[in-house]
Amino acid sequence: MPEYRISGRRLPSDNGATNPFPAALLDCLASYTYLLSLGFNPANIVLMGDSAGGNLALSLLHLLPSVGLAVPGRVVLLSPAADGQLTHVGPTASSTVNAKSDYCYPLMSTGVCIEPLRGDALSREWVSTSMWLSPGARDISATQSSGWFSGLKNSRTMILAGGAECSVDGMRVLRDRILSDLGKGESRRLVYHEEPDATHDWPNISIWEPEGEMAIDAIVRFIEGEQ
């Protein structure tokens, strides 16, 4: 597993944030290029991330074609953090309906998750309209998001979400933006599964059985090219 710098917040007396965006992204890029330098075929590489790691994987997927590198053959995202500031609001929004069912709600609603990433240089407004950090945010225009995931035309992606997640609206928007970039006739390149009533990162939580085991089996089949 590649190592990367973890974003965090120091105490005010310790001079603010440490390793904000894009530190971890650049470390992931370095790890990926190292794999390529060893002779690995991108088609045989699987990029996988859950929660904040899923967000990081999405950023890397956009960056790779921008620097002339091929995307990995398979991508697996578990509850990717596509809308860390919960920009989808209203009485029917998942941030409202699932506020009591998702253990991540206190973290996302207070900004604890996004503060380390934005550091001291980036505003909350920038983060909430940035495809880098909020690819499923509400207020990102179609012009801004168009083409962002075009590199996935050369890959296959699986997204596992939970219907009881406070940020599942962002994952649904992420799904639709990926499908838009894939274009007509290429929807088979994206597998999206939303487990009813499941909370954040449910395949990694032991109480979600047998659904969790079934999800892991589906991931294995996806990686092996059986679906």
Description:
- This protein is of the alpha/beta class and about 230 residues long.
- The protein has a single domain (about 45-225), classed as Alpha/Beta hydrolase fold, catalytic domain (Rossmann fold).
- Helix content is about 35%, strand content about 10%.
- It has 9 helices and 6 strands, in the order ββαβαβαααααβαβα.
- It has helices at about 25-35, 50-65, 95, 105-110, 115-120, 125-130, 140-145, 170-180, 210-225, and strands at about 10, 15-20, 45-50, 75-80, 155-160, 190-195.
- The strands form 2 sheets. A 4-stranded parallel β-sheet has the order 3-4-5-6, sandwiched between helices.
Describe the SSE topology.
Layout (H helix, E strand, L loop, with lengths): L7 E2 L7 E2 L4 H15 L8 E5 L1 H15 L7 E5 L15 H4 L7 H5 L5 H4 L5 H5 L13 H4 L10 E7 L5 H15 L7 E6 L15 H13 L4
Helix pairs in contact: 1-2
Q: Architecture in CATH?
A: 3-Layer(aba) Sandwich
Assign the CATH class: Alpha Beta
Query: Shape from CA axes?
Result: globular
The major pleated sheet works out as: 4 strands, parallel
| Rg on CA atoms, Å | 17 Å
Main sheet: strand order: 3-4-5-6
Domain count: the total is 1
CATH topology: Rossmann fold
**Superfamily at the CATH H level?**
Alpha/Beta hydrolase fold, catalytic domain
Helix content: 25-40%
Instruction: Quickly give the structural class.
Output: alpha/beta
**Topology pattern, helix = H, strand = E:** EEHEHEHHHHHEHEH
